[in-house]
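Hi team,

As requested, here is the filled-out complex form for the thiamine diphosphate run. I kept the field names the same as last time so the parser does not choke. Let me know if anything looks off before we queue the next batch.

— J.
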Amino acid sequence: MASAPPASVDATSGAGDCATAQPPRPNVPRNEVPFETARGWLREMMLIREFELRCMQAYQDKKIGGFCHVYIGQEAVAVGCVAAAEQRDPIVTAYRDHGHALARGMDPRFCMAEMFGRIGGCAKGKGGSMHMFDRANNLFGGHGIVGAQIPLGVGLAFGTKYEDEVINGGKSSRVTLAFLGDGALNQGSVHEAMNLAGLFDLPVIIICENNGYSMGTSIVRGTTMGHDISAKAAAYGMEGIAIDGMDVLETYWAMRDVVERVRSTSRPVFVDMRCYRYKGHSMSDPRKYRTREEEEAYERDDPIGRLKAHLDSRGLTEDDFKSIQREVRATVRAAVEWSDQSPVPPMSDLYRDVYLERWGPYTGSSAPEMLGGGENEPSFKAIRPVEGEGELL
Amino acid sequence: MREIEFRDAVREAMSEEMRRDTRVMLLGEEVAQYNGAYKVSRGMLDEFGPRRVIDTPISESGFAGMAIGAAMLGLRPIVEFMSWSFSLVAADPILNNAPKMLYMSGGQYGCPVVFRGNDGAGGQLGSTHSWAVEGLYSNVPGLKMVIPSNPADAKGLMKTAIRDDDPVFFLESERLLSLKGEVPEAEYLIPFGQARIARTGRDCTIVSFGRPVLFCLEAADALAREGIDCEVLDMRTIRPLDAAAIVRSVRRTGACVVVDQSWSFGSPGSEVAALVHRECFDDLDNHVHRVHSADVPAPYAYDLEQEYLPNTRRICEAVRACLYKA
Ligand SMILES: Cc1ncc(C[n+]2csc(CCOP(=O)(O)OP(=O)(O)O)c2C)c(N)n1
Ligand SMILES: [Mg+2]
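And here is what came back:
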């Protein structure tokens, strides 16, 4: 499926021209997604939204600390992209990462407990909201430093390709999804990484979740070619396309197409994923840099609402919709309750996982300390790419 | 005397210097239209306009380097890093260009830039966002490093920083920005390299920098109730370091504890310890005791972070140990 060219927008205005400025693509085979699959996406998007609403509440209640960035409004992006990829395809993203974690299959309890700083969290309470890691689900982290995850994503693609081709002697078969925000597009490391991806033919999809703002700076105020960022891809010899990230069906079909192409050609692709964040940048943002009218226009064009309307036309009953609603509420409530019950990490955990080897912290004394065995064993032994090789001495 | 917040003190200093010298300008993420992510620059766009208060994209390496180039040409930029943690992506310009330009050019090109922003733990921000960069950056010759602990010092030191002809790294703290304190209305500057005696005492000298000075004062109050009388030195600048003030105090007390929120290995704290051991060897009744952040990346979980940071309890323990009263 060929992507429509980015809509021409007024480069002097703010974000208002993102998602809705994309004309709907008549050729999206909307009805070809099995009803149950599409219903599953609706549930996931509703789960993410409910989860994020409860996060905001928990933040107000001071159960969550630090910085917390919610994904409300962008649910279709994570759900559509994850659906278009395979579970073995690595994913890496920025700090607005709860949606990606849940879409990838992280247990909502582990995600919530992480933010509560509890031992039951996906990183035992050491990472927090911005740093969600899920090895079992091939989620290689949320990353707090703007842009930092893009070189890593390119490295994941280098790794899969090397493993498949050099070590296993086959053909590159996995595709990495590396997400970043529109503001992150102005980090030098992102451009170095894109050049590397183009130069080394790496199977990575760089997905720019273009929600129109980096904090209080609208894209056109901070970014050259802000009206058409996919044009930047050409400079790195890679394809660049724009996708309407407010529509999960469109995101899915367009991304499926991209994933297939990258899998077969091992060439990187850059995606300008047009979307909108409904809430503030983080928990303390009065959003004075944009108008209520703009926000309401996007909220009327809600990704969950769009998918529901589609499913309504295919026979989704109001009862069924209500049952999804009840179920996701119960799931998230249970995640909160579970996280409340999860113990805080023991103090000994402060010194765990610093090194894979069992060197203790530097104390300034003459003898370096060795941590004992048993409970001080590092939690993951097989961090190295090839298991069995280079065993610990 | 009037009381103002730390952030207002920093802003007053910047605004006064910008009124005085048109070569001074401010740039950084969200400093203009958003009035600063932490409202330090509130109102400055209105007063000075968009040519002198400039919003940048999230391109630290680019805009830090740009400021250095502009400074070589004769401007005096102030660069705001939203957090010093984000300056790491600009490590090359701020460490390889700014502090070496004068030397490498044989004295031809100076680099009068002030880099400023939040340093240290902000409160559960996790490993990437909780850098105390004084540990890393104070290692570099050619830069000056300022780390105020209260509004009055922040204002006087910021004015000195802007007028200084060398690159100055000015370390604020998110946790201090709302702190109120007395700040004179009349103009004043505080010279670099002069420690402030935050509390006088006879039994033990506590040397500290920036926000941890407040914990040291709390600890000194607690220890006073046990009959231990501590002197607290607020160093205010790390480069230059007021070594004489430390030596004077330790010669009187005979005991020294250093409290430094960076990691212990190769840090301002270890430098002070080395200095005291050399200069006050015969005056000491015990070796210098040191309180640092734990030698691990900053954890997110609240309890772990509290234990990770230098805190009042750990400072008290160090003082008691140093005085053989543990
Ligand atoms: C190197 C660096 N600079 C600054 C920040 C502070 N910061 C965090 S998010 C953000 C805005 C990013 O916007 P965008 O990339 O569009 O992502 P969005 O928040 O819209 O998802 C900024 C400036 C940071 N985390 N890292
Ligand atoms: Mg954005």
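Two things worth flagging: Chain A has two domains: 17-345, 358-393. The beta strands of chain A are 91-93, 139-142, 176-181, 204-210, 213-214, 217-218, 239-244, 269-274.

Thanks,
J.
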